[in-house]
Amino acid sequence: MLTSVFIYIEKLKRIPIAIVVLFNFSSIINIILSYYRTITLSVIPSLCHRFTMGRECLPFIFLMLLPVALVWANPPTLNTTSDLINIEFGHRFPRHGLHLLYFIAHHLDVDDNNIIRPNFVPDRGDWGFFSYSDSEGVFPPLLDQNQQGYYSVGNLNLQISYSLPHFVTQSYRLALGSAERNRDRVVVRTSPNREYLEAVYITQRYPLNDPRSNQYDPQNTWRISPALLREIRNLSANRKDSLSVFLYTASYDVSSINFNKYCYYTGPDINIDQVEEASAQQPPTESTAVNKRVSLSNSNNHVECNEIFLEVKATDKGYARIRWSNIPDTLLDKGVQVNVCKDGSCLTSPIDKRSYGTYDIRKYLNKGLSPCLQYVVNKSEIMCGPTYDDTDRKLPVDIKGYDASLQLYTKDGYACARLIIKNTFSDWMNKFGSSWVGFYSDHNKYNYNYDTHQMATYFQYEGMVGQYNMYVYCSNMAIRPEAQARFFLHKEYVSIAMTIPWER
């Protein structure tokens, strides 16, 4: 029920001011939030000093702050995919919010009691999560600052986001000059019992042309219910095109993507406008997988739009291998090449008018290698592939029975390992006094057939992330596809942690 409070203030020195405060427990509060946030800090002090008695200002302050408190304490909740349809979050190219929500939801287990169990650790920095202080009060206040926390993910400008999958970051890379490509975030609230999440939210930053562009917009902040998280996971279970199914159900505006550079089309009767219109109308099928945008045919013509794909992978000797696919003839005829850069140093990979293929370059694998498709003549960039992540986009694996984990990564083309120790595990050097890490060039090798190894206590301190201390060691073994690291508690060949094999 809408409650209206009309306050008429007559005891001002100059002119009367009529203030109408409207508040309820629904979306109306969201609409007026921005207004109240501004005036509570700037207008109230200037008004209050005009009252003849200071205490007469107290009801005024209360009424001004009440709607803000209501909003900050309770962002609206989305319960079904239908609720996602009419919000702004991530719905148009190059926004990435719906893709990010899909990814996070598929790494959460939600049971029948609505307990949310993540298979990642936000305060360890997994997938680029970082601590968010919520100084603007967008989210409910934490009851225990020492054990609870807010963690945000989705800032694609940061190196820590390199580990996010290709489909989350692709719009960011296709729209190099867009102010819209990095606004969306997913925020989680951790529980005092660290195995659970208390809540999951979606939000977005204000537009870049807004003075508040570095803040989250409370009018576009929503809580995602456990039921919706389950629905996102179950909606497209066991389907090859599960992302397409979700985006279609949530009414992602596919027509907002510019297809001009990515289409094969023949005949005069089909133009690019028809392709864009059809793309927004086609329901997902097995043929519209993540890498295929849309196809449109009539009796004389056929159009097929694919995503151009670029990536950096490993050779058998720790060098970078460039892989590309789906480059249309319209670009090949103009002359294109792949340029791979890091810190201003670049190497060029010729593609010889091949729409797909690989090319090995004499550059060691390192974090930050960025492959971009460019014209041969003027070197202008068309689009970029995902920036290479030195962990092969793999999360650390838990060391069973201990507050510690193991991660394989690469530096200068060599296989390296990172021991991640929670700061409460203070006697780890005693517990791991006889422990060691083995490096394997092939994950099919037996435990005793390691290529090289190092004792856990010889790892060097790297730094601290959240509540975790990082210790690292780089071996003399080249990183390569199928490589693996394993953790052994004692001298016996019984591993208690094994990393996921390095991808080809």
UniProtKB/TrEMBL annotation:
The chain crosses the membrane at residues 15-36, 57-73. It comes from the Eukaryota. Keywords: Membrane, Transmembrane, Transmembrane helix. This is Uncharacterized protein. It comes from Esox lucius.
